[in-house]
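Standup notes
- DV: blocked on the single-chain target, sequence here:
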Amino acid sequence: MSDPTTSATPTPPERTDFIRNIVREDLASGRHTHVKTRFPPEPNGYLHLGHTRAIATDFGIAAEFGGVCNLRFDDTNPAREDPEYVQAIQDDVRWLGFDWHDLRHASDYFGVFYLGAEKLIRDGKAFVCDLTPDEVRATRGTLTEPGTESPYRERGIEENLDLFRRMRAGEFPDGTRTLRAKIDMASPNMNMRDPALYRIKHVPHQNTGDEWPIYPMYDYAHALGDAIEGITHSLCTLEFEDHRPLYDWCVDNVALHENPELLQPLLDNGLPNEAAKPRQIEFSRLNLDYTVMSKRKLMALVNEGLVDGWDDPRMPTLQGIRRRGYTPSALRLFIDRLGLSKQNSLIDYTVLENTLREDLDGRAQRRMAVLEPLELVITNLPDEHAETLVFPNHPKDATAGEREVAFSNRLWIDREDFAEVPPKGWRRLVPGGEVRLRGAGIIRCDEVVKDADGTVVGLRAWLDPDSRPGMEGANRKVKGTIHWLDARTAVPAEIRLYDRLFTVPDPDDDSDGRTYRDHLNPESRRSVQGYVEPAAAAAAPETSLQFERTGYFVTDRRDHHPSRPVFNRSVTLRDTWMQKEG
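- DV (later): unblocked, structure below
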């Protein structure tokens, strides 16, 4: 009798990286008794591949330690935000396989932010400044020279409160005044040189309408938003490392966890008091070669018609790569393999493609498709010949079942599987040569049919009857095997062959005077009219399949219909860029 302890499913190894180690230490020391994180995107664009690391880290670490993760929209800049992006972000997070504890908005906390700002003024730690943006920049100083204090820095508390309240009342035009923190204009950290906390913007907000003519700056709103929600570990990318002292300054000086009266607007809106002191931890961004992930540049690609919209399968947006056929499990595997570090690096695009190949190899059912059709007539079968062959849906998974494929004397084969003058090492069909038709037998090419221009338009071949499945010669050796489709039952299909959008690893590099636009790959999208099996055409949208000997493809989530099949190439069977780069 077997020992049940030896047959049990082994416990997966504990994941370790510098962030998880910090979380463990915080829990062990009692600094935190639970874990709460948040994913805080600004709704001013679509999420892209770079966000996948942040999403997987924020939601993944919370889940691993039995905690929760909020989704919070940083909607403090209404001029650039749109409800379309809000909905797309929620869809993308759920598509990746995550769900949030609470859905929050920075705008939920505008009342708290305002009271916190008044507290800073009363404490002598903030002032209303009348300098223009250009004048502020001129007084900021440099990395080696201190800045110059604003002439309005020593305004009295009552005057500052009066001016700030009049800003709130909408008395002043845009850009005429800001509320600035009073910290240190000689600080070696430029972010601490009396940064702006509020600016005047008479712009309607998607959630609050015309209620607020002033809006908080990101650093202030982000820090207090984390504190309000009781976030224990505020995980963000490395560019915010220099902002951490300001983050801590805002949290410590407003001190929401010690001043519950500031949270009254929160309670009035029916939200709980969870205020606490969060800890910010930074990790490296996900940078991928052959890609740009700047929202500004992605917006330009869309607006200039250089791509077919935000969900173009060549785009690094999650909407785009989803339409390309990338799966949530492949993306999570990709993030897991990269791990977390403090070191910025450029990730090889092949790493991403390989995780998709690995994921789809185990799950994608197999089908036959012909991308560039060439007619092949089997001369020793009658025109009325019709039979059904049976193929496994997946060679490594018997539970995937089988499918029936029609076979007759008229077939389609891929044009690239025939060469009238073959190159050295050719293993496919040539005049007078033999190949195996996948699962059907061995044929010999007896005749090449050409049109008046000399273009090959068809082949005539003889099928060895002894090589048919189950016959004595079925295992006879030949050099090559090719796939095919029955010409009478094959379904016409549009097949979109997508590739990398750029031709160089670093399209952002403009040292030679060229921009990313100059590196667009003209071969990144090519559409062909081919044929697929009826079983492929009948697949639902967003179904991934392996077209045998060709690559992994997905039925287009927007354009595919069984009566008008449309397939997008997700990735080739093998890396084709290694040879190009070599």
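- Follow-up: The two ends are 58 Å apart (CA to CA).
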